[in-house]
Amino acid sequence: MPYITVDQENSGDIDIYYEDHGSGQPVVLIHGFPLDGASWEKQIPMLLDAGYRVIHYDRRGFGRSSQPAIGYDYDTFTADLNALIETLDLRDIVLAGFSMGTGEITRYLGAYGTDRVAAAALFAPLAPYLLKTDDNPEGVPAAVFEEIKQAIRDDRFAYQKDFLDNFYNMDVFGGTARASEQVWQHGWAVAVGASALGTLRCVDAWCTDFRGDVPALSNVPLLVVQGTENRILPIDNTGRRLRTLVRNVQYHEVDGGPHNIGWTHAEVVNPLLLGFLTKQ
After folding, report:
1. Are the beta carbons of 152 and 203 closer than 8 angstroms?
2. Can you say how many angstroms the Cα of residue 38 is from the centroid of all Cα atoms in its chain?
3. Predicted TM-score of the model (pTM)
4. Which structural domain range is residue 192 located in?
5. Coil, strand, or helix at residue 180?
6. What is the pLDDT of residues 133-156, one digit of tens each?
């Protein structure tokens, strides 16, 4: 299993687990909270069959990567992504992210530029700025995030149950082909296997202000896809705002789609992604 070392905490290395399959133009897949890189399993075979090189990795604190107590902020997450890109010397990349993974892409383009990037795809985006402030009245009140952090401190396992119920809109899709009980159970197992500290500290990362990075999204062809019934990152606070701020964007809404549309509505998402890639 391949790893790259991105940092050190006291006496231990901080290692990022990744997988690198196929050949052709590289597509780097960046997963969402609270899952891991394997959560792209409905997209990976399609991309490989279409002739792309597919790289996915586990964010620090999640999956098979190290679980340090430090580095749960977007400058560090993006530095980890950059380390992977530079170690593998990837060029002409398509960056594709879901949920938290869209934050790495937005910050990467803002901080590192587009020299290595050909295009980007954001599914259920986090940008431009989720936190409600005086100059960002469209955001979510800070009290909501404080309640989430307290719920994680009180009972992380129960919190992940509630989170995943809304991740898939289980009251609508649960027990159907879109969101079986088994996929929910798998998601819960992956979620509770993540770092407890990382899970807690990621909540503050959700409140990152990406408004300074968003203009860089206009520098590459961009695909944005989001479900209209997203209960985790409400579409009016995120995707619908983002499309008004970015040039060169292909924007699509999945009617009735929940947060994790890449799983529940793969029959919609996959053709959109593949059609976007073939035009680049």
Report:
1. yes
2. 12
3. 0.97
4. 3-278
5. coil
6. 999 999 999 999 999 999 999 999
Does the CA dihedral 73-75-81-86 come out positive or negative? negative
Cis peptide before 128 (omega within 30 of 0): yes
> Token pair of 178, please?
């879109």
**Dihedral sign (CA 201, 7, 215, 251):** negative
For residues 146 and 200, the answer to whether their CB atoms sit within 8 Å is no
Looking at the predicted structure, is the pLDDT value of residue 280 above 90? no
Instruction: Report the pLDDT averaged over residues 267-279.
Output: 97
Q: Domain holding 241: CATH number?
A: 3.40.50.1820
CB distance 238 to 214 below 8 Å: no
Closest CA to 49 of 27, 30, 31, 32: 27
Q: Residue 237 is encoded by which pair of tokens?
A: 């606070």
Q: What are phi and psi of 69, to 5 degrees?
A: -95, 0
Q: How many domains are there within the chain?
A: 1
